[in-house]
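Whiteboard transcription, Tuesday session. T.W. wrote the C-alpha cells on the left side:
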C-alpha cells in the first residue's frame, strides 16, 4: 500500500513537469508556424546572422570549456593536496552559481580592454589577411570576446561533471597501472579514456548553457547583425530577442519570427545532443 502511494505521489509531479514541457514546446511550435509558412524567419534581416553568431560563440565557448574543464579536473584530482582540492572545488561550484550578467559586466568593463590589446589586436595585425580576423578591433565588443567569456562562464558546469566522474573511477584501475610500471600521466590518460562519456556529457551541458545564454551575450556581442569576423561586433538569437522584444509589442508579426528563432535554437541544442548520443553509442560498440 505504501509503495503504491509513494509511486502515485512521485508520478504526479513527473507528469506535471512533462506536461509543462510539452505545453511550452507546443506553444513555441504554434507561434512559429506563421513565420516558417511565410518565410519571414529567413527574410527578417537579423535572423540568419544571429543564427550564425549563436553557433560561432557557442563553439568558441565549448572549445575553451573543454580545455579548461579537463585541465582543472586533472589538476584537482591528481596534483592538489586535499585542503586545496576542497577550496578550488568549492570556488568552481560557486562560480557556476554566479548571475551571468556579472560575467557580462566583468567581460565588458574589466576583461575587454586587455583582451582587445593583447589578443584581438595581434590577431588582426598578423592574421588580418584571414577573414575571421580581418576586422580591426576598435570596438570593445566582439564575437571572439563573447565566446571567450562564455567559455569561462560555462567551464564550472563541465568541470563539476568531469571532476566527479574522475573521482568515481575505481581505485583498481589506478593500482593496475601502477603495478605495470605506469606513472601519473599514464593514469591520467587511462582515466580520461574511462570517463569519456562524462566528458562528452559535461561539454554538452556547457554547449546548451552557452547557446541559450542571454544576459552576458547581450552585453558583450554588440547587437550588430551581419556575418561578422571574430574580431567584430556580432549578434546572437538570445541577444536579438532580448534587445528587440519591445518592437514585438508594436509589430505582432515579430512574435512569430522570435518564436521560430527560439525553436531553431532549441533544434540546434537537441541536434547536438542527438549527435553526442550517437557518438557515445558508437564508442561502446
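and on the right, the sequence the group agreed on:
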Amino acid at each position: 500500500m505504501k509503495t503504491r502511494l509513494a509511486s502515485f505521489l512521485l508520478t504526479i509531479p513527473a507528469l506535471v513537469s512533462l506536461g509543462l514541457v510539452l505545453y511550452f514546446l507546443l506553444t513555441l511550435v504554434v507561434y512559429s508556424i506563421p513565420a516558417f509558412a511565410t518565410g519571414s524567419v529567413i527574410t527578417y534581416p537579423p535572423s540568419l546572422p544571429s543564427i550564425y553568431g549563436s553557433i560561432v560563440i557557442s563553439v568558441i565557448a565549448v572549445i575553451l570549456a573543454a580545455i579548461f574543464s579537463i585541465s582543472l579536473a586533472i589538476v584537482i584530482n591528481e596534483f592538489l593536496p586535499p585542503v586545496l582540492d576542497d577550496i578550488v572545488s568549492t570556488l568552481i561550484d560557486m562560480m557556476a552559481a554566479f548571475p551571468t550578467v556579472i560575467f557580462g559586466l566583468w567581460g565588458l568593463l574589466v576583461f575587454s580592454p586587455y583582451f582587445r590589446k593583447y589578443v584581438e589586436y595581434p590577431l588582426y595585425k598578423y592574421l588580418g589577411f584571414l577573414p575571421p580576423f580581418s576586422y580591426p578591433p576598435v570596438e570593445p565588443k566582439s564575437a571572439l570576446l563573447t565566446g571567450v567569456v562564455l567559455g569561462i562562464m560555462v567551464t564550472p558546469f563541465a568541470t563539476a561533471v568531469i571532476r566527479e566522474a574522475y573521482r568515481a573511477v575505481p581505485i583498481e584501475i589506478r593500482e593496475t597501472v601502477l603495478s605495470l610500471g605506469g606513472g601519473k600521466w599514464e593514469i591520467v590518460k587511462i582515466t580520461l579514456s574511462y570517463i569519456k562519456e562524462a566528458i562528452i556529457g559535461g561539454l554538452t551541458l556547457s554547449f546548451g548553457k552557452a547557446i541559450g545564454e542571454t544576459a552576458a551575450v547581450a552585453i558583450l556581442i554588440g547587437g550588430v547583425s551581419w556575418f561578422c569576423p571574430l574580431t567584430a561586433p556580432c549578434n546572437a538569437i538570445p541577444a536579438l530577442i532580448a534587445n528587440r522584444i519591445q518592437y514585438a509589442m508594436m509589430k505582432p508579426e515579430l512574435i512569430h519570427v522570435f518564436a521560430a528563432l527560439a525553436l531553431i535554437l532549441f533544434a540546434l541544442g537537441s541536434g547536438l545532443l542527438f549527435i553526442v548520443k550517437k557518438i557515445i553509442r558508437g564508442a561502446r560498440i
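Someone added at the bottom: The chain has one domain: 31-284.
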